[in-house]
Amino acid sequence: MSLASAPKRSGIGAGEDGTETVRKKLAELQRAARRKLADSGQHPAEWYRQPEKEMEGEHILVCLSSAPSNAKIIRSASKMAAAFGGRFTALFVETPDFSAQTEEDKRRLEENRRLAKRLGASLETVYGDDVPYQIAEFARLSGVTKIVLGRSAARRKLFWGRPALTEQLISYAPETDIYIIPDQNADSSYRPKTLKERRKADVAKNILKSGLILAAVTVLSLLLERIGFTDANIIMMYILGTVLTSVITSHWSYSLVSSAAGVFIFNYLFTTPRFSLTAYGTGYPVTFVVMFLTAFITGSLALRYKEQALQSARIAHRTKILFDTNQILAKAENREEIFAASAVQIGKLTGCDVVMFDGSGGKLSPPHFFNAPEDSGMQYDEEKDRSLVAWVFENNHAAGATTEKFPDSEYLYLALRVGERVYGVTGIRVGSVPLDASTNGILLSILGECALALENEKNAREKEEAAVLAESEQLRANLLRTISHDLRTPLTSIYGSAGILLNNEKGLDEESRRGLYLDIYNDAVWLIDLVENLLYATRIEEGRMKLRTSAELLSDIIDEAVRHIGRKAQGRRLTVEYEDELLLVKADGRLVEQVVVNLVDNALKYTDPESDVSIFARKAGGMAEVRIADRGPGIPDKEKEKIFDKFYCGQHKIADNRRSLGLGLFLCKAIVEAHGGTIHVEDQEPHGAVFVFTLPLGEVVLHE
Prior knowledge:
This protein has 19 helices and 17 strands. Strand 16 (about 680-685) and strand 17 (about 690-695) form a beta hairpin. Helix 5 crosses helix 6 and helix 10 (about 285-330) packs parallel to helix 14 (about 435-505). The chain has helices at about 15-40, 45-50, 70-85, 105-120, 130-140, 165-170, 200-225, 230-250, 250-270, 285-330, 335-350, 375-380, 380-395, 435-505, 510-540, 555-565, 590-605, 635-640, 665-675; strands at about 60-65, 85-95, 120-125, 145-150, 175-180, 355-360, 370, 400, 410-420, 420-430, 550-555, 575-580, 585, 610-620, 625-630, 680-685, 690-695. It starts with 15 loop residues before the first helix and ends in an 8-residue tail after the last strand. The strands form four sheets. The protein has a five-stranded parallel sheet with strand order 3-2-1-4-5, sandwiched between helices. The protein is α/β, with parallel strands linked by helices. The relative contact order is 0.05.
């Protein structure tokens, strides 16, 4: 608490308790400042003159292990990070011996890992055999300024053993501060295990392998002796057998026994006196010792390289899974594919059943199982785990198996999140065995990639929706501008013609009045067609255009459309021809009639008044085909693909100089395709255009 935030008291006698509290806080702040100055080794004036970048917080690194005292070291490092206001990282170095640790050690390591995470540490895992070198390299690359270790790491186990971890760290990273945390309960009895508890079947199998290799080497050595090979060649054969034993078996003890047995067998079979463990040659004891040490060292190195190769294979497998996850998620096109790909990769990594919940729209979807047996749904307690999953989704925190929240569940539930935004929940059937640190790190990376892919999919969908909305708004604006112009022109004409008739009807002759009436009629018909096209376009856009299909005579539909055209075709030659007047189609007669009206009206608008328009209907290829041809200028090839687009008017002008709204052909295509037919435009010879559309044939069912 600073002086400014200290509680104030009224009156002259401010109270000794409050003054004493403020004095203690100030003393604590002064001590912290002195520690900071002492660590920097600078004068106070120089420290205050440092740029802000040089005054950034420290980076504290604590090493994770399965030691019982590791929890105290983690807490001390956390307090140190809080005191310095710096970053806090917990590092675990996975060595080849990690796979040989007992379940108790692995459980304790997982508890220490969770403790570090709960205290705000960033968890990291590196792989290697040289622990101090891995720690020093991570500290150098990550900008670590202080390393916190336990007291056991500061002392040498035996006087002939390797230097203490602290000494090696000082040699690898001399510029980094190293802090040793004392512990009154020293871990003198704790030793990390380097050998798994193996089943008797595994022991017997390894013994059998070692015996067979030793027997094979002995038989081969006897053959070599008969051929005339020297003792040195035979000794090399037994060393080779020890190396093979180290590679095939699972522990160095078998290579040790194999090397000792090789010495005794060589002494018994190949030294003088034969078939005795005594040796007359004075150099044989040295030979035996060298042979034993050579075989043992070679076998130990072979076993160590095998363990490192296995560790490298595990690392490569996990890295490949993470790399494949990134590539697969990049190709996923929707949320379902993202969830499925992530679940498959998690199953490959953990070997466990996976259940996924999509949190789209703030609500959890039903569970989707992956890599699960057929009866997994029967074993899944949906009522019980549903509340657990909802808790994870709402609180953005892991729960379930191997955690402190709802530990009786068989599934470990983790949130798919980016920051504080949760996109779903994934469950992994781990049972009571927690995931090791390295697997858990890769798992969190996969979940992070999945959440990021979901966020990208959401952003892409919102961007697409925004683009569609912007396009819709643009189309709406264009439509309003077009309608305002197209409505104003005929309305002005109607208004002017009606005004002339009202004010001077008696002064006009019959022909003039009839011309004005005809203009009013044509403008009104044009407005009716415009409104009908707009209504149809609105129904199509909103998905409200429903077909009421029935068996209809195609000739009746076309005749009704020709009657509807009426006065528009006056003075024009419009011919209709049917190959079969009893041709039935399965269609909505009213909508197909509108198609014929729009196509004929389009032909009348864009052709000369002297040209002809023809309609021809026939049966073609299992469909009813209607061809509407004109003798106009035709349609250029580059416009044929665009002519059915909405609001596309082409380059040709209408004969009466009115602008087209560009909806007629768009409606024709929508109606024909809704019936399951097709529509296109062809060239008419020698000039002109032919619009061709097809409809499905209809059948009449007779009930006797």
